[in-house]
Amino acid sequence: MKHTSTTLILGTALVAALLSGCGRSSSDAGAPSASAPAAKASEAAKPESGRAIQFTANDTMKFNMTEIHASPGEALSVTLTNEGTTPKFSMGHNWVLFTADIDLPAFVQESATAAATDYIPASFRPKVIAATKLLGPKESDTVTFFAPKTPGRYPFICSFPGHMQVGMKGELIVE
Ligand SMILES: [Cu+2]
User: Fold this and answer.
1) Residue 90 C-alpha to ligand 1 middle, in angstroms?
2) By residue range, what is the domain housing residue 130?
3) I want to staple 131 with a disulfide (CB 3.0 to 4.6 A). Which of 5, 85, 96, 169 is the partner?
4) How many domains, in total, are found in the chain?
5) Are 153 and 171 in contact (CB under 8 A)?
6) How far is the CA of 14 from the centre of ligand 1 (A)?
7) Could you tell me the distance, in angstroms and rounded to a whole number, from the CA of residue 79 to the centre of ligand 1?
8) What tens digit of pLDDT does each residue of 48-98 get?
């Protein structure tokens, strides 16, 4: 598992690709997965583009913003970039936005064992408005969605185990 500095970035990307490939093929090879169709069914219609919002995360386990604002039903395009250097298996980050009625303590408890689905348990998918992929170092992902039509405060977190508890959380305020 040692890389020279010249091959570190390529190696990390390769490992990430292999890991995600393994995850996919092992779930495909096993019993028919209930989570994939369920996740699709719960996804609402998506806009083709939206107002760009740039999030960053790093090895200090902080988002660059803990509060964002939107108007009801506004199309948003949220990008998360992991600027850290620690490998994904020990320091992955994602950005997960929930409905206002999410039971976060229950989510945190269940998500800790949901590594195979990027720490988003299938049972909580109906409460997820939008979520990026789980990102390793120097990776980036964009998710485009409509803000809720109902004004209110919608929590977002990083669902990697332990990260919400140390501050990787915030709110989308729809007003
Ligand atoms: Cu994180």
Assistant:
1) 10
2) 5-174
3) 96
4) 1
5) yes
6) 21
7) 14
8) 999 999 999 999 999 999 999 999 999 999 999 999 999 999 999 999 999
